[in-house]
Design goal:
- The protein has 287 residues and is of the alpha/beta class.
- The chain contains nine helices and eight strands.
- An eight-stranded mixed beta sheet has the order 3-2-1-4-5-6-7-8, sandwiched between helices.
- The longest helix has 23 residues.
- It is globular and about 50 Å long.
- Bound molecules: NADP nicotinamide-adenine-dinucleotide phosphate.
Length: 287
């Protein structure tokens, strides 16, 4: 079934909307009439992106929020700003994510891949959950990756302190996205809020540029013509945020707008429940 739900009276927050897949997602949903909030680390960059999105979508209802989401204090400040600005929130798109070839620590002393890719959407979603429930039917869409299929959760060394590999950390964080989404779907059963995750495809963007592995830089140049554009990469996020096809559908993983089976570990409720508990401890929220 095709079709487009009108987003005219909907409010959507997209993390990481200053470039790449997030900005293209924002343009798509703003074009459908939604009020769209985007986030980025730098005020000037976020405001420039908001202005670009307004122009591209012919929709003036685009707001810029700033936060370095690798910091829990900043995620909490962002949540307060969003709750102040938006009396209702229909869709949250957890899009921010990155790859680092070397191990870096955040302001909270946590490994950055795990902190930004997993703990930030985990904390932000939990802080916005009551507003999403009050706005039901509402949707939480989390951008994972095909890399989730190679991931496993190393509870003995979640933050790669003993043996860091950028790829392993990324795979783990993207599996954590799917596990978080699945566990969230279970916890939200009966609330009218759905939670789904997705692989956007391999997309030409700024992804991984801050600290790129050499093989990644070489490979990216070689396969550049084969990569999706950000607009193509945004299609599954836009679909899950807006389509009537997925009304009521929850706890699912998508790629190319199709339901796909993710890593089988994502269905193991012992692991997803344990990850939820460890994550809640790390961001200091009740389990
Ligand atoms: N590109 C791909 O091939 C690919 C494939 C599979 C999955 N994905 C996933 O798709 C998502 C989007 O990736 P992309 O390719 O669009 O990446 P991108 O071009 O690097 O964009 C990342 C966005 O996140 C923001 N951001 C980065 N670090 C941040 C931080 N510490 N705090 C707040 N915002 C931050 C950036 O904003 P500022 O720099 O302005 O702060 C930017 O808006 C990620 O979750 C990624 O894992 C991408």
């Amino acid at each position: 079934m095709g079709g487009t739900l009108s987003m005219a009276d909907k409010v959507v927050l997209i993390t990481g909307g200053t470039g790449g897949i997030g900005k293209a997602t924002a343009i798509g949903l703003a074009t459908m009439g939604a009020r769209v909030g985007i986030t980025g680390r730098d005020l000037a960059r976020a405001e420039q992106a908001a202005s670009d999105i307004r122009a591209a979508s012919a929709n003036s209802a685009v707001d810029a929020f700033t936060a370095d989401m690798s910091s829990q204090a900043e995620v909490r400040r962002l949540a307060v700003s969003v709750l102040d600005a938006y009396p209702r929130l229909d869709v949250l798109v957890n899009n921010v994510g990155g790859f680092w070839a070397h191990r870096h620590l955040t302001a909270d002393g946590l490994e950055r891949t795990f902190a930004l890719n997993h703990l930030a959407p985990f904390l932000l979603t939990n802080l916005l959950l009551d507003r999403l429930k009050a706005s039901a039917p509402a949707r939480v869409v989390t951008v994972s990756s095909g890399a989730q299929s190679m991931g496993r959760i190393d509870f003995d060394d979640l933050q790669g302190a003993r043996n860091y590999s950028g790829q392993r950390a990324y795979n783990q964080s993207k599996l954590a996205n799917v596990m978080f989404s699945n566990e969230l779907a279970r916890r939200l059963d009966g609330t009218g809020v759905t939670a789904n995750s997705l692989h956007p495809g391999v997309v030409r963007s700024n992804f991984g540029a801050e600290d790129q592995a050499r093989w990644f830089a070489v490979m990216s140049r070689v396969i550049l013509p084969l990569l999706k554009t950000p607009v193509q990469g945004a299609q599954t996020s836009i679909y899950l945020a807006s389509s009537p096809d997925v009304v009521g559908l929850t706890g699912q993983f998508f790629a190319n707008r199709r339901n796909k089976r993710p890593n089988k570990l994502a269905y193991d409720t012992n692991i997803t429940g344990r990850l939820w508990q460890v994550s809640a401890d790390l961001v200091h929220i009740p389990y």
